[in-house]
Write a structure and sequence with these properties.
60% helix, transmembrane, LptG, 6 strands, 2 domains, transmembrane helix, LPS export ABC transporter permease LptG, alpha+beta
Length: 366
């Protein structure tokens, strides 16, 4: 049986395959988002309505913020199911057999699906960068306020811990940047050989000659058990303002560019950036995972040695997709823990399952 050159496929057939695949994927995604959003609301609506004054408008606001998150998370899975439905239908109607009889290879049949998946991946990246990141940031702030009014927290960092040798510094709130950084609600734990010797609590602090001057301080001598008040104390000599202002960076709440800039600032201040780099690279590999789904689901269309067991083949295709998601989540978790290098954590599952999908397709059909 002859095969067509390369991955070229007749335009009419390519458009038909791509249109069928995209329509099925969108339908699956819409159904999943609707079902999962309803289940999510069952658990969250009580907490939302528990805050005085919240009503239907608050529920709709939550839906508007949560829907992009669910859609982005389950888009690759929807593409997997959309591919399975498309290929199973083509197989059941003997359309794939007709294409093969016309000399069209399995890779040529999958090529329009791959091109459509690439377009979906591009749209997904833009959607994650411009919609999901903002929705995540807004929803996180709203949840931290127990679904009450959210204050403008731009340029504000709360609940910061900084280590200075053996000593610890806790700050309730940090405002400003650089030399203008202000600390509010400062606690200083002076330790010697891992034993607390002095506890200092100050109302506020600022940078003076490379150290932090804390005003209106209550000093407690642990050994003597004595408490006294002093106008000011100086702590944390050599601690840069970035140690306070960059203490908490949520990669999921930032766009790709904003996260890249935050990582550069953290590196300049000598802070570890491995987990954030994993999140950064996964912002690319995550959307691109949609390209893998037609390849992993191809077994449903082309079979295992033409066994004819269509349902079993569909289950195998779904299992390969699930295994990819498990491996991807595991690798990202290992990257966040620092066990895997960021690039390996973000890209290893993608490359591994691309090779697995190609091997299965070639072994069973080509």
């Amino acid at each position: 049986m002859s095969k067509g050159p390369g991955l070229r496929v007749p335009p009419t057939m390519g458009w038909y395959l791509a249109k069928t695949f995209v329509s099925r994927s969108i339908a699956v995604l819409a159904a999943l988002v609707l079902i999962l959003l309803m289940l999510d609301l069952l658990g969250e609506s009580g907490d939302i309505l528990a805050y005085p004054g919240n009503g239907q408008a608050a529920i709709l606001h939550y839906v508007a913020l949560r829907t992009p998150q669910i859609a982005a998370r389950f888009l690759p899975f929807s593409v997997l199911l959309g591919t399975l439905i498309t290929l199973v239908r083509l197989n059941a109607n003997s359309e794939i057999i007709s294409m093969k009889a016309a000399g069209i290879s399995a890779h040529q049949i999958l090529a329009p699906l791959g091109v459509a998946s690439l377009a979906i991946a591009g749209i997904s990246f833009w959607f994650n960068d411009h919609v999901v990141a903002r929705a995540t940031s807004t929803l996180t702030a709203w949840q931290n306020a127990d679904y009450g009014p959210v204050k403008d927290t731009r340029g504000i960092v709360d609940n910061v811990w900084v280590r200075d040798g053996e000593d610890l510094i806790h700050v309730d709130r940090v405002t400003g940047k650089g030399a203008a950084t202000k600390l509010t609600g400062v606690e200083y734990y002076d330790r010697t050989k891992d034993r607390l010797t002095t506890l200092a609590r100050g109302d506020y602090g600022h940078l003076v000659n490379g150290a932090w001057q804390i005003e209106k301080v209550q000093l407690f001598d642990v050994k003597a058990g004595a408490l006294r008040s002093v106008p000011a104390v100086t702590i944390g000599k050599g601690i840069l303002p970035d140690r306070f202002t960059l203490a908490s960076v949520d990669g999921d709440s930032l766009s790709f560019r904003a996260l890249w800039e935050a990582i550069d600032e953290l590196e300049a201040s000598g802070r570890p950036t491995g987990p954030l780099r994993t999140v950064l690279w996964h912002k690319i590999s995550g959307p691109l995972s949609t390209i893998l789904m037609p390849l992993l689901a191809a077994v449903a269309g082309f079979g295992l040695a033409r066994s004819g067991k269509l349902f079993i083949r569909a289950v195998i295709g779904m299992a390969l997709g699930f295994l990819y998601f498990v491996a991807d989540n595991f690798a990202v978790a290992m990257g966040n823990l620092g066990a895997y290098p960021p690039l390996l954590a973000a890209w290893a599952p993608f490359l591994l399952f691309f090779l697995i999908g190609e091997a299965v397709l070639i072994r069973t059909e080509e």
